[in-house]
Specification:
mainly alpha; 3 strands; Four Helix Bundle (Hemerythrin (Met), subunit A); 6 helices; globular; 43% helix; 3-stranded antiparallel beta sheet
Length: 226
């Protein structure tokens, strides 16, 4: 499958990425989660609806995810690694927001230093820099959505450009209709896209470079890290 790069984007099997993801997008997405978290009513933090995490547990997971991704990238992992953090039930929401910002900043710095040609193991496929950015931003954006919906906070959708770039890079099979945000929620099993029902829980990423994509939707074929 051909891949042609240039200032106008990356063309891959008929697709064109209009915006290339950058390491700074990780901190941008984390800041959006922080802003959403500040609006959660205190009494809602530990409420969990059937089959979902509480807002506090979701935020704790995001801290875990940023540090796990950082560990994969920093060590240039070739296989699964042990997560460096597995939740902190004693941390307050404010402490978790601070830890999330720190974890996102660490990951951003590591991704800035990651050469374009390097690929690092992830269970969904060996990911290049934009693959790691796309996965990290997916975690942040969709779990930020989870925090808002579980706590009754109105959704202040993130920038359309970022959501669209994430979908085009790591969820490229998403139908073109709708906004980047609605396509992202559809692809991760959180919302309808027009009349299309949400994807099921086995959705996964195209974390390897798009030049390696076979054109088919990715489905989970390994257990979650947690």
């Amino acid at each position: 499958m051909a891949r042609h790069e240039g200032r106008g984007g990356v063309a891959v099997i008929g697709k064109t990425l209009s915006v290339e993801l950058t390491p700074g997008d990780v901190s941008t997405a984390a800041q959006w989660v922080a802003s959403t978290s500040f609006r959660v009513p205190e009494h809602r933090w530990n409420e969990a609806r059937l089959g979902t995490w509480s807002p506090r547990r979701t935020l704790d997971h995001l801290v875990d995810a940023m540090l796990l991704y950082s560990a994969y990238v920093a060590t240039r992992a070739r296989d699964r690694i042990t997560p460096p953090r597995n939740g902190d039930p004693n941390a307050t929401p404010g402490e978790l927001v601070s830890a999330l910002r720190s974890g996102a900043s660490i990951l951003e710095s590591l991704l800035h230093a990651m050469p374009d040609e390097i690929q690092v193991f992830h269970p969904s496929g060996n990911a290049d820099r934009t693959g790691w950015i796309g996965m990290a931003c997916t975690e942040l954006l969709v779990h930020g959505f989870d925090i808002a919906t579980a706590s009754g906070v109105p959704i202040d959708a993130p920038g359309e450009q970022l959501a669209r770039a994430v979908v085009e890079r790591v969820l490229p099979w998403s139908p073109p209709e709708g906004t980047g945000w609605t396509r992202l929620l559809w692809a991760t099993g959180r919302a309808f896209l027009g009349t299309r029902p949400p994807q099921d829980a086995d959705w996964w990423w195209q974390s390897a470079p798009l030049s390696e994509w076979d054109g088919q939707p990715r489905r989970r074929d390994a257990p979650p890290q947690w």
